User: Fold Methionine synthase, vitamin-B12 independent, putative from Luteococcus japonicus LSP_Lj1.
Amino acid sequence: MYATGIGSLPGPDMPGALRHVLGSFEQAWLPELPGRGVGADMVGRTLAMTEGLGFDLQPQGWRLLERSGVDHARARGLLRRDLDELEEAAQGFTGTVTLTMAGPWTLAATVERSRGDKVLADHGARRELAESLAAGASALLAEMGRRLPEVRWRVRLDEPLLPAVVSGGVATASGFSRLRAVDRPQASALLSVLSEALAEQVVRVGVHCCAPGLDLDLLARSGIAQAALDVGTLGLRDLDAVASWLEAGHELLIGLAPTQRPDVVSTPDEIVRRGLDLLRPLALDPDLLQRSLAVSTGCGLAGWTLRPAMRQLDALLEAVPLLAEQLAR
Assistant:
């Protein structure tokens, strides 16, 4: 059992964020700092990883184009600087670093085609986008593996829109109707593009979703080995699925510190209580939980201010041995 962060942090200071993350967490991550502006957001950073496609930021959001515009170039520049700073900060670090990126379905439901409407509406375009991200992420991991040979790597795909994609809840670009629901075999196939392309380069490929209704069986069929969920989105009907996920040997990263109210820090005792409320009714083997469970915040902390965000991360670290001790009883 371990603690880690889910992705985003407040402020513009990447070297400072990396010092805290790498200095405190054996299971670290490359933070997202969307407060830096255009190109530093989750979608902008992810598009900076793609290969062979062009994008630019329009008034209505990111759009797929024949060639990159100035905003996509800025996103690529920010990503390169972040990777350089990660290399410098991680000298001597021998733990694991997670690269977070928007998943293929959230990208397809967010980015628009050049001729209008979302990429999600076009089977060929959404496949091309997923393959472009897979190729770019694989090249990035290969490069960082050479630059930081002692580091092990994970990838976590942020998929907040995946439940809406499979339920037909994604609005068209006009907002007047909804795009057709994607059936589960198609949803699984596109996630598999990423999981299969990256499997040999990483410890695990995971999916994070802080929206309710994530289908864990869909993730399992996609080769996804870790599910990252906000405990606040889970109800009684989700308990069997969570138990089955863990018993199948998958990892659960459970968000036990809510993030919806900025700067409201959960104490270690509160984190432990939420963990016990979820896990004790499952009646699972304590050794299984020790091997398969990780603890995080529910979502990112970009909307917080810096000092409470750092306190919340520290509280997660304090909570893990307490939760492990309680579950072992």
About this structure: Residues 104 and 189 are 11 Å apart (CA to CA).
